[in-house]
Amino acid sequence: MKNLYQIALQTVSPIKLKKNGEAGHVGCALETVGGVVFTGICIDVPCSIGICAEQAAIAEMLKNRETKIKRIVAVYEDGSILPPCGRCRELMSQLDLYNENTMVVVDFEKEVRLKELLPERWDKKWD
Ligand SMILES: [Zn+2]
Fold this sequence. Notes:
Number of helices: 4
Order of helices and strands: HEEEHEHEEH
Strand content: 25-35%
Number of domains: 1
Keywords: Hydrolase, Metal-binding, Zinc
Structural class: alpha+beta
Shape: globular
Oligomer: single chain
Organism: Enterocloster hominis (ex Hitch et al. 2024)
Protein name: Cytidine deaminase
Bound molecules: zinc ion
Largest sheet: 6 strands, mixed
Helix content: 25-40%
CATH architecture: 3-Layer(aba) Sandwich
Number of strands: 6
CATH superfamily: Cytidine Deaminase, domain 2
Domain CMP/dCMP-type deaminase: 1-125
Family: Belongs to the cytidine and deoxycytidylate deaminase family.
CATH topology: Cytidine Deaminase, domain 2
């Protein structure tokens, strides 16, 4: 986890955007089951148009035709670890059944499987 945390931290690169917008104050690193690491940054602009760093990293992963996430961590600009929001949890679960087993880093000394963060899936009917 430590190496993935360092990669996520290095991905953080805050930038001010037009009006009140900003980006890059959260960085995410995910490792696929194939051992490849993808990163992303958040985009936060007015009217909730932005995206989470996890979503950006996931888009990079999908661009490379991978869907199985072994481990994921997101880091705020102050170095603290941010657990994924509900939307990102759901997104990971929708990509691949394997991702129930994704290790989600929720704090420095704690990581849990995605299925523990989403205990009652609504879509089992379509597995
Ligand atoms: Zn999110």
